[in-house]
Write a structure and sequence with these properties.
This protein is of the alpha+beta class and 326 residues long. Helices cover 37% and strands 23% of the residues. It is built from 9 helices and 12 strands. The strands form 3 sheets. The chain has a 5-stranded antiparallel β-sheet with strand order 7-6-5-4-8, with helices on one face. Strands 10-11-9-12 form a 4-stranded antiparallel β-sheet. Strand 4 and strand 5 form a beta hairpin.
């Protein structure tokens, strides 16, 4: 199953399961009609649901799905039926998320969010006042220009600074403004790359209307995937070798695959820019060895050697008493 299909299934389950719990014995066809899902997909979802639960996976630890005479009944695992009692740290993290949602541009401070925030503040007691959040918003002129292009269905020209610090001009066909992990993205078709791209609004230096002869926006994919790194199929692979306890490195690389290799793991992932890959490996502090491509391995070894030489020179330098202000 592709990542997009997996996300679609998760979104569907998050909507369908609470409804099924509240409406036991509903016929399959009625559920399909209500949520716009075909019968085969719904039955596949229910099959997966039967393997979900909490650690232990014994009696009462799994979600129970019963299909009798084409009627569905779902019963949550016992632990999921009980009210949640988050730790202070978990409650603070939830409160931060709620307050961040309340402060995002274009997101209404709804009554539901206010009730959730009040409940978390009551749980935290006096500690709630110390929980603050600041969400950085993109430049107002940039946001206005992008929203105008979206409303008109017209291309927009971006003066853009990418993650590697390279500044480029791009004409893009805007599809949507999306928030992911507190960051605003413009999802669009980039004419320079001739491919879909996600642009962080806080990296847009300037946004201006494209010339009249550049009018027209192609139809976006349906569904539009969430913002994220989507490397081309022929992207060069970064191959690393790490210890088993450092398997978490794969979580930092979009599209990574892990393969056991004796006492080690081999991680393969789309590399993107070589400069970024070199900086990423160096940031691991020797916890990963580059197997390929060779130019990245050579560059990492050279820069690590330079850093060690600089550190050695600093340690051997004679101590000089700093001048006194007195």
């Amino acid at each position: 199953m592709t990542p997009v299909a997996t996300l679609e299934r998760l979104e569907r389950l998050l909507v369908v399961v609470p409804w099924l719990v509240a409406h036991p014995g509903t016929p399959v066809d009625e559920v399909c009609a209500r949520f716009g899902v075909d019968r085969e997909a719904l039955l596949a979802d229910l099959d997966v649901l039967g393997y979900c639960g909490v650690p232990g996976y014994g009696g009462g630890d799994l979600v129970q799905v019963h299909l009798v005479d084409d009627a569905i009944t779902v019963r949550l695992a016992d632990a999921l039926e009980r009210p949640l009692r988050p730790t202070p740290e978990e409650a603070a993290a939830l409160l931060l998320a709620v307050r961040a949602a309340q402060r995002l541009p274009g997101v209404a401070d709804t009554e539901a969010l206010t009730r959730v925030a009040a409940a978390l503040e009551a749980l935290l007691g006096g500690d709630a006042a110390a929980v603050t959040v600041a969400v950085g918003a993109p430049d107002e002129d940039v946001t206005t220009a992008v929203r105008s292009a979206l409303d008109r269905g017209a291309p927009v020209r971006l003066d853009y600074l990418d993650a590697a610090g390279e500044r480029t001009e791009r004409t893009v066909e805007p599809w949507a403004l999306t928030v992911a992990e507190g960051v605003w993205y413009l999802q669009a078709h980039c004419r320079r790359a001739d491919a879909p791209r996600d642009f962080r609004l806080d990296r847009v230096v300037e946004a201006t209307p494209a010339p009249d002869d550049a009018a027209g926006v192609r139809v976006p994919p349906d569904p539009l995937p969430p913002p994220g790194f989507r490397p081309p199929a022929d992207d060069e692979q970064l191959v690393l070798r790490v210890a088993h306890e450092d398997a978490w490195v794969a979580e930092q690389l979009p599209g990574a695959r892990r393969e056991p290799a004796g006492e080690h793991l081999v991680i393969r992932a789309p590399m993107g820019r070589r400069g970024w890959a070199i900086r990423f490996v160096l940031s691991l502090g020797g916890r990963a060895r580059v197997l390929s491509p060779e130019p990245v391995a050579t560059a990492v070894a050279a820069r690590a050697g330079q850093a060690l030489e600089a550190l050695d020179a600093w340690e051997r330098a004679p101590w000089t008493e700093p001048p006194s202000d007195r």
